[in-house]
Design a protein that fits this description.
Length: about 150
Amino acid sequence: MNKIKIRKAKFTDLETLIEFNLNMALETEELHLPAEKLKVGIASGLKYGRKCTYFVAEIKTEIVGSLMITKEWSDWRNCWIAWIQSVYVKENFRRMGVYSSLYQHIKNIVNLSSEFGGIRLYVDKTNINAQKTYASLGMNGEHYQLFEWMKDY
């Protein structure tokens, strides 16, 4: 089995992150994101670490997966909650432990930090495979239901 290396994304990973997000939106929500707007958004996230942090999974020198972390303040817990977003694993590397490695990396960061109290993510209701993966890692989807209102592109 190939060794999976997790690292914080760099600005040089921008094009890969754009490709992954375009693919993820299309696969999970049949949504065609505007690539230029996405590029500006990801570049801003990479440039200004306060907005978010991207992590990538590499096998040898190939980036095979990624995710983004944002922080939400919890007044109830007096700490930050790490939100996992923009998860993508290249199709031919799925079911090889790529997401598990990314998740464990984030979980270690949260466990070692006094500023974080936990991890959350949202998943499309129809994405049963992702839900099974998250449950197998000990995540619980029974507590909250997500509601949203979004402006059109």
